[in-house]
Model the fold of this input.
Amino acid sequence: MTTTTPALTGSRRRPGDKIFSGTAAASAVLILLILAGVGLFLLAEAYPALVAPSEDIEGGRGLVLYLWPILFGTLITSIIAMVVAVPVAVGIALFISHYAPRRLSQGLGYTIDLLAAVPSIVYGFWGVQVFALALVPLYQWLEENLGWIPLFAGPASTTGKTILTASLVLAVMILPIISALSREVFLQTPRLHEEAAMALGATRWEMIKYAVIPYGRSGVVSASMLGLGRALGETMAVTLVLSASGGVSFNLINSGNPPTLAAEIALNFPEATGLRLSELITAGLLLFLLTFAVNFAARALVTRQKGGST
Amino acid sequence: MSRQIDVSDLDIYYGSFLAVEKVTMEIKPRSITALIGPSGCGKSTFLRSLNRMHEVIPGARVEGKVVLDGQDLYGPGVDPVAVRRSVGMVFQNPNPFPTMSIYDNVLAGMRLNNKRMKRADADEVVEQSLRGANLWNEVKDRLDRPGAGLSGGQQQRLCIARAIAVQPQVLLMDEPCSALDPISTLAIEDLMGELKKEYTIVIVTHNMQQASRVSDRTGFFNIEGTGKPGKLVEMDATDTIFSNPSVKATEDYVSGRFG
Done:
């Protein structure tokens, strides 16, 4: 034998390895830089509003009192949207993944994916032209029959442009995302776990309860958080649908509503200069921090659940 | 609670594909029946037809009869869910519910059957089942831990405990040891010897030593070629199948001269 043993010592890295690891690392660093850059820009631009005397701020009562109703409007519309959308989305996802016959489920799946791609301004038009008006009778009914609940105290809006309408439009908008992602997770449930439940004599719903939902729970949380992120940041639809003309109020069906952060910025940005511009950028900073917090919370939730399940 | 199964002229289809043809078999109570044969010969499909688990694949159907203690499992109005509650199954890969504790895993089937149980009764069932599966001493101090934290062999015994907790009439085992090491395999085989005092057991195995060690009767399945249906070639007492089979193909297979 004349062949020599190849040297086992010394690392000879191939160019492909170097290029790949280099570009991957660069992309990762770039993301962090962009994020940091956005944060710094917002901070720097918001600074004048942060230090300005409170009587100079829009409304004349300081930055906190200016931003609070807007933050409140953002939170309440998003929360209502989530409460409405998540159960429905999970139901749709389960129907597609485990109930519908295969042909129907494929068609439905494509339709849901398409819905996720509809531009938000289209939802906004639809919300204000069709949906809001259609909801007016419902609001009147709510006021008459459930008016003792502060949420529905009224007087009911005659245009339908209320917090509840905005929330429901948001719910419709985030429904496809949550449902499409949940469906993917549910479809990946290990067959082994499904069969374990079936072999014990589980009905379909019991099988879903035992095998599919525990497996998909963290995925549904992530999907919901993505939906929440979209709801918090949604601008066009809310700007069109919500007639913003009030402060903090839990009254969901009258016409005096707080705006949302994104809508407030979109409505006022074109004419804003100087300090007013700074105020709006502060609102943007707040929104940035809020979505950041939501994503962190989601990540924490998902890791904790994974930790518990292994 | 141990019951006889009579299978007569059973054809199993996936869509229009005939997977298993004309199986007639008598499975005796309080004994272990082993099903052996090459891969793809339909023995697992046949096993799954005994508790209608093959129906989870769309298009699967059968013709013929499977009679458990006088009742046709495929008769009109028979609910597959009810069938599976009285014919338990253990799978090739251990599949405890990963998010449930050991305790809850054992009780999973009970909770499906009757929703409310007194705590003391539940404790009793858990201990009985885990003792029945020879697992009690290993896990009694950590019943609240997730089932997925156990070793493979322990997980498989947990699955057996889960299956016997509902006191089924029959226990089906689909290659229950093929994912386990020899020591765990031995533990499961010992357990099967215990379990046959109370249950009718049907096991599919690729391991012929295992079949000859544990079973009382053995059925040999074979297939003539790809696309052809699997058939039950021969069934007899295990000793006879392994020492003096009446069909040449059986002898070739059990002696390793297959193909």
In short: The mean pLDDT of chain A is 84. The radius of gyration of chain A is 25 Å. Residues 95 and 105 of chain A are 8 Å apart (CA to CA).
